[in-house]
């Protein structure tokens, strides 16, 4: 449901209304330890522990599958690539030219596929529920990032959607002048250059408008909305830190843990 006052999608999940900075911290706490490991046990345990977090995010089933479709395609493709060209160890099951499938490459492929899902799913799901304005408020007020940089980045993100409309307008204008009937490649390069020039002009106008409104001033600026952080935000961050910790402990206990910077099995 979309709020008519703020044009935001209202979600019912308990994770959705949490602080944008808490969601960013949770995604990083889950991703960084899993990036440094490359075994199937830690990735699998982390993925299982992430299921409640994904269910509590408030995404509908269709939205979840649409948003994460790239991950479900990338995971098996990366697994196939690693299985064919990964490090060879153990019994070799298939070999042809530079392709070689062995026990080691299969284990590495399985770990890679599960790790892609374990890292990507929470990041995508958490960021889907993040409003860019809330994230900018949190980064400036709580993370103490420069307000000028944060507001400028927010304005740039808000204008990304205009590029699609500009491309469509350029195509219609060229078609109205009769120059869009042939030479598709040449036309695409011309439109891309025109779009680039238009984006620079719009960015210059936006920068001038922001400077006129005091965004570049040395004094601390005020904020229309105060960034809030409560116990539930802290709980979300703690839960996110527990997930990779439990996963690594499980991998170490089973003897399957493999540090990505260390020697591979």
From TrEMBL:
Source superkingdom: Bacteria
Species: Microbacterium foliorum
Localisation: Membrane
Keywords attached to this entry: Cell membrane, Membrane, Transmembrane, Transmembrane helix
Gene Ontology cellular-component terms listed: plasma membrane
Pfam family for this entry, one: CbiQ
Major location category of this protein: membrane
UniProt-recorded name of the protein: Energy-coupling factor transporter transmembrane protein EcfT
TM helices/strands, residue ranges: 21-49, 69-94, 106-129, 235-260
Entry membrane topology: Multi-pass membrane protein
